[in-house]
Write a structure and sequence with these properties.
The longest helix is centred in the C-terminal third of the chain and has 21 residues. About 45% of the residues lie in helices and about 20% in strands. By secondary structure, it is an alpha/beta fold. Helix 1 packs antiparallel against helix 2, helix 1 packs across helix 7 and helix 3 packs parallel to helix 4. The chain starts with a helix and ends in a 7-residue tail after the last helix. The protein has seven helices and seven strands.
Amino acid sequence: KARTLAYSASVISAAAYELEDELALVLGAGGRVLAYPWARPDRVPHLVSKAACGQQAKGALSLPELARAASRLASPYILLTDYANKLEELNAAIAALRGRGLGIVLIYEPAELKPPTSCLATLKDPETGAGVGGRLEDLYSAVQSHVRDVRALLKWRRVPYVEVAWPWVRERRAALANLYLRVRRGLPATAP
């Protein structure tokens, strides 16, 4: 996911750079909030890559903590995250950031959403170390239900979003740039 995150951030920052926008960047890395109130858009990919690739997965922060830190900085906001957030936390982050413009980039690995063949498995969360085991079909059913709930929340809250995964992130460049432009302009959300 780190390379998808870095690539997505570089597309968005390139759009900001071309428009001569200034960006504020807030990262959750290694259990800490890293804030760059005046990040030059051309430096954002480096900062994101350094944080994403240089951290141990442990010590993740909640989205509401990151949203509180971000809400003190410039807006509008583009939140780059994955589906591995509690629905309540995502909703709280949306509430904290939405009033001043918000778009979300959901980063995922294809294997997270499409189950392989039937088997028993134990999955371990790299951020918390918690494990869950069972039939793989049951685990994926729960994941797919959560993904549907996240999408429904974003549509209900009218938050524009783009889903990206590594094999297709280059094909989603236009959608990522368009997301930045829509949020920047404050245009109403439409289905992605």
